[in-house]
Write a structure and sequence with these properties.
With 429 residues, the protein is α+β, with helices and mostly antiparallel strands. It has 2 domains: 2-140, no CATH class; 153-199 and 234-365 and 372-426, Anthranilate synthase. It has helices at 14-17, 55-68, 124-127, 131-140, 162-177, 201-211, 256-264, 267-284, 326-333, 344-355, 407-426, and strands at residues 2-8, 30-34, 37-42, 46-50, 70-73, 84-88, 98-102, 105-110, 113-121, 153-157, 184-195, 216-220, 223-227, 230-235, 238-248, 288-292, 298-301, 306-316, 341-342, 365-370, 375-379, 383-386, 392-401. A hairpin with a 4-residue loop joins β17 and β18. α2 runs antiparallel to α9 (326-333) and α5 runs antiparallel to α11 (407-426). The longest helix is centred in the last third of the chain and has 20 residues, at 407-426. The chain is globular, with a radius of gyration of 21 Å. The termini are far apart. The structure holds the ligand C=C(O[C@@H]1C=C(C(=O)O)C=C[C@H]1O)C(=O)O.
Length: 429
């Protein structure tokens, strides 16, 4: 029998006072942080590797069974307190390799409240004796191994080169224009980085968090990134999604104000955005008795990009659909037309054929959930999959392709998106 014991931490405790991203030991950390708030996890109380088209259902069953066997001692009662799992789901069904992990130690922070949860057997939880907790305390006392730079970074084409990507985009435009019923296909490609020294995930997380404060910075089993796109957040019956699609990036000396204005008035970008908003609203609709989607998008400005953004909010209804598990709602919304296309299934088939690569967990849902069904999941974008031998990573970026897309421009957009992780790898802290 596992016990999950949560305690609120008081000011004066370094785990309370220091920024979450500065509290990570040099171990296999799990993290989901935005601004000062978020959740970091250490150690593994359980890990489930799942794959295939029913990966969301399999994850739901593993989590449900695990929660049934946990004795919860949680006076904090906030979303993310008590037992939690991190999940990172594959974009595609085949092979669909995904992971659900339950950390032994969780440090959470939300609007000024910081809590510590330990998950383990009854014997090791009260004594607080796990190695993961000692590692966390050491990090808080600045005794963790210092954050290491990876040194020199070299790049090579991935499974789909930049030139191959341009060709794939041109073909996608052709197929969309051929009145095939296709409205949008989101195509991506990858880039391999190899580094002089092993990549310290903390180095990437710290650099990404510093440059992208509006993004959700994450690491789950070697997938590290800073995503601007919130796929689904659930707090009790309230759900929220931040849909992004339609982008611009600083180039040719054009300032962000000019780019933002152009973006809002660009028919091509508005079209891309509309596809994504409609897909999220359509898949959330059946679960909700109230759904709000503003008529006009806004522009969000990041260090490397500007995006059209729409925040959709809803309330889960009291019916069976409204009581669905968070993982079931995720299965319904993924993939949105921000990373798949329209119509979804046809677009995903085109992606497989035109990209000819496995996206892995890039563009899939990544985040955490708790035992009450609350959680936050982003779309894993602006990210890299760290290699198992430590000194290499696979970076990904993609763009929505519609009838009016220009292959050169999409290739430049993907390159601008790749820069987020490239700069984080290359920069000093
Ligand atoms: C696919 C990516 O980004 C997505 C595609 C966008 C677009 O085409 O304009 C914008 C934001 C994301 O929804 C990526 O970053 O790899």
């Amino acid at each position: 029998m596992l016990t999950a014991r949560t305690r609120r931490l008081a000011p004066g405790d370094p785990l309370h006072d220091r920024a979450l991203v500065d509290l990570l030991p040099d171990t296999d950390v799990l993290s989901w942080v935005r601004g000062g708030d978020g959740i970091v996890g250490l150690g593994r109380a359980a890990r489930f590797d799942i794959s295939g088209s029913d990966r969301f259902g399999a994850a739901r069953e593993h989590w449900r069974r695990l929660c049934q066997g946990v004795r919860v001692d949680d006076p904090v009662r906030l979303p993310g307190s008590g037992p939690i799992a991190f999940a990172s789901m594959a974009f595609d069904d085949d092979p669909g390799d995904s992971v659900l992990v339950v950390p032994e130690v969780v440090l959470g922070r939300r609007a000024g409240t910081t809590w510590l949860t330990t998950i383990g057997t009854a014997e090791d939880v009260p004594s607080g004796g796990s190695a993961a907790l000692r590692d966390l305390r050491d990090a808080a006392a600045s005794r963790a191994a210092p954050v290491r730079s990876p040194g020199r970074v070299d790049y090579a084409a991935g499974q789909l080169s930049a030139a191959g990507y341009r060709t794939a985009v041109a073909e996608a435009v052709h197929r969309i224009r051929a009145a095939s019923g296709l409205g949008k296909i989101v195509l991506a490609h990858d880039l391999l980085a190899s580094t002089e020294q092993p990549i310290d995930a903390r180095f990437l997380l710290g650099n990404l968090a510093a440059k992208y404060p509006a993004c959700w910075t994450f690491v789950v089993e070697g997938l590290v990134g800073a995503t601007p796109e919130l796929l689904l957040e659930r707090t009790d019956r309230e759900v929220r999604s931040r849909v992004l699609a339609g982008s611009a990036w600083p180039h040719d000396g054009r300032g962000p104000d000019e780019l933002a204005r152009e973006l809002l008035h660009s028919d091509k970008n508005r079209d891309e955005h509309e596809h994504a908003v409609r897909s999220v609203a359509a898949s959330l609709g059946p679960f909700c008795d109230r759904l709000r989607s503003p008529a006009e998008p806004e522009v969000i400005r990041l260090h490397n990009m500007l995006h059209l953004a729409t925040d959709i909010t809803g309330r889960l209804d009291g019916s069976a659909a409204g009581r669905a598990d968070l993982l079931d709602v995720l299965a319904a919304v993924h993939p949105t037309a921000a990373v798949g296309g329209t119509p979804t299934e046809q677009a995903v088939r085109e992606i497989r054929e035109l990209e000819g690569m496995d996206r892995g967990r890039y563009a899939g849902p990544v985040g955490w959930l708790d035992a009450d069904g609350n959680g936050q999941f982003g779309i894993a974008l602006r990210c890299a999959q760290l290699g198992t031998d430590g000194a290499d990573a696979r970076l990904f970026a993609g763009c929505g392709v519609v009838a009016d897309s220009d292959p050169d421009s999409e290739a430049a957009e993907a390159a601008a998106k790749l820069r987020a992780v490239q700069e984080a790898l290359e920069s000093g802290r």
